[in-house]
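Q: Fold this one first, please.
A: Sequence and structure below.
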Amino acid sequence: ALTGCNSDQIDNPGSMEVHWVIGGSTCAGSEVSTVQVTLYGDNGIQDIVTSPCQMGGTTVHQLPPGRYNVQVDGFPAQQTLPTYWGVVEDVNIRSGYVNTAPIVEMAEKPGALDVTWRFSDGKVCAFAGVDTIELTLWDSHSNKVYGKELPCAPTMAPQEKEHTQPSAVLYESAQGIIVDGLYSGDYLLKAF
């Protein structure tokens, strides 16, 4: 028998069972309705599967043998951005077997603020004669989560290479200073 050179069929695929939990909560309690399971390895994304969160698990079929990372993202109903996520790394897939990944523990995924400013008279920095501002952000427990003196014009702020959280990072699409690593809740922002 001859085998075609460009066959997309995997000779002896494996499968992976993926289970998830939301630490200290439930899908309903966290308002997560859908999860997206992404398997990726050295060759990029291998498969993406979507499942109702309350199922607690799914099986991904037709996987070439190898090692994979498993990312599970949790989405609220009618939302396009995940609010919870978790990853397990280096899961081995053996040919012809149903392989089980360690349980993926999802945690709340932090968000960010795009902070912009103008002065009360409507002027921007250059026309107001202001060179620097100090941004300070407190959470609802009065913890200071961000504080930095920055150039008044956001385009002059240095771009941080490391994404430590919380940090200020200037993204291309941002109009101001991005303060990331923030979890849902109320914050108090002051600029001087």
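Q: Good. Now the second chain.
A: Here it is, same layout.
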Amino acid sequence: GTFVHPNAFGGGLALLFDRVDTDGPGGQESGTLQSLWLRYLHPLGDRFTIAGEIRNRTVESEIEQAPPTVKRLTRSVRLRGRIADGVSAEVFAVENKLDLTADSTVAESPRNAHYGGRLGWSLGGFWGQASVRHLNPANRPNLLRADVDGGLSAESLGGVSGRLGWDREDGNARTVWGVSGWTRPVLGLSLF
């Protein structure tokens, strides 16, 4: 079921509940999947919005190779806004938790969190974005990631974009980069 209210508590509220039951092939592998999604958006003036979101999913099965119950919970908070004409920003915090403790072979439930921000701009056909993210995964070293993307898009010709990224994990640094281009569609076909 779905419930959406555009003006709940001064903001927008959405709720989704879904359940699927199955007996599996030949009625030998029964299981259920339940999902719950809740999101609330609240405007802060006419340029900023804060959003909170919760996703909860539970899978129960009688398959021998899988844990009998797996639960995943994701919580996030985001603040987005328009700083100036053509310039936007976002900061966010996300936490994921996977609960496998019903399986006797798993000692603890993995949890990870990541935090970060983005700054984007556009002017005519030019656009760019810079982002930084800190990941704190369970049972692994922290990861710091930074990316810079930019490009040019011309409706009459096509466009070109590029990306430069940098990761640092456990004292090891990696750099990735790429360039891509595309043409405008001609007779429904585009080269890229």
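Q: Anything worth noting on the second one?
A: The radius of gyration is 22 Å.
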